[in-house]
């Protein structure tokens, strides 16, 4: 999440609304980003969360694809991956206000498309969500005294919603669980969520992803076209220098 910023208006209005649990468990409307264009000519949030990893997978494809020895990709998505915030006509979300949510939904789409195209070659992809964690990044968004005021509320909310994992250790529950599974046995349309009870016990729950495979395939083809464009641009730049 490059350049995270807190929407104070949403915070204070949400604290006294019926959506307080949803707001804190997904950060929807609560955290915003000042998206910008990078030196590569791409939107920063999209390049950071989606396209950079896609290029890495493309480069590692010969090592990852072995039908006799399955490989597993595990993506970190979010409960805030909203279909309404993603559009095939603007995959980088250059015209929208929710680049983080859009990029996480794009990850869900990409994971499904990778399974569709690479399962026969031994490459499997899954998606996890770590839940709401308090990390060095999130602590830097707010002054320390604000966190002192918020933490009792957040701890209380754990009894009403399982998304408040709070620590990175708890947040890795689904990731570690997935690592120990046979990748070919996993449902490619399922998101695996780290969850924590009000008393601090960790477990894994699942959620069917709100997407269709045709959209996922179209998005994957768009990424391939964008990759070609970027590689040509880089080659031209190298030749000129």
Automatic annotation (TrEMBL):
Record-level GO cellular component terms: endoplasmic reticulum membrane
Keywords: Endoplasmic reticulum, Glycoprotein, Lipid biosynthesis, Lipid metabolism, Membrane, NAD, NADP, Oxidoreductase, Steroid biosynthesis, Transmembrane, Transmembrane helix
Domain of life of the organism encoding this protein: Eukaryota
Reaction equations catalysed: zymosterone + NADPH + H(+) = zymosterol + NADP(+); 17beta-estradiol + NADP(+) = estrone + NADPH + H(+); 5alpha-cholest-8-en-3-one + NADPH + H(+) = 5alpha-cholest-8-en-3beta-ol + NADP(+); 4alpha-methyl-5alpha-cholest-8-en-3-one + NADPH + H(+) = 4alpha-methyl-5alpha-cholest-8-en-3beta-ol + NADP(+)
Enzyme class: oxidoreductase
Subcellular location: Endoplasmic reticulum membrane
Topology in membrane: Single-pass membrane protein
GO molecular function annotation: 3-beta-hydroxysteroid 3-dehydrogenase (NADP+) activity; 5-alpha-androstane-3-beta,17-beta-diol dehydrogenase (NADP+) activity; estradiol 17-beta-dehydrogenase [NAD(P)+] activity
Matches recorded under Pfam families: adh_short
A biological-process GO annotation: cholesterol biosynthetic process
UniProt KW Lipid metabolism keyword: yes
Associated pathway: Steroid biosynthesis; estrogen biosynthesis; Steroid biosynthesis; zymosterol biosynthesis; zymosterol from lanosterol: step 5/6
EC id: 1.1.1.210, 1.1.1.270, 1.1.1.62
Protein's UniProt keywords contain Membrane: yes
Subunit and partners: Binds to the short form of prolactin receptor.
Similarity comment: family membership: Belongs to the short-chain dehydrogenases/reductases (SDR) family. ERG27 subfamily.
Name the UniProt record assigns to this protein: 3-keto-steroid reductase/17-beta-hydroxysteroid dehydrogenase 7
Organism expressing this protein natively: Ursus americanus (American black bear)
Lineage start: Eukaryota, Metazoa, Chordata, Craniata, Vertebrata
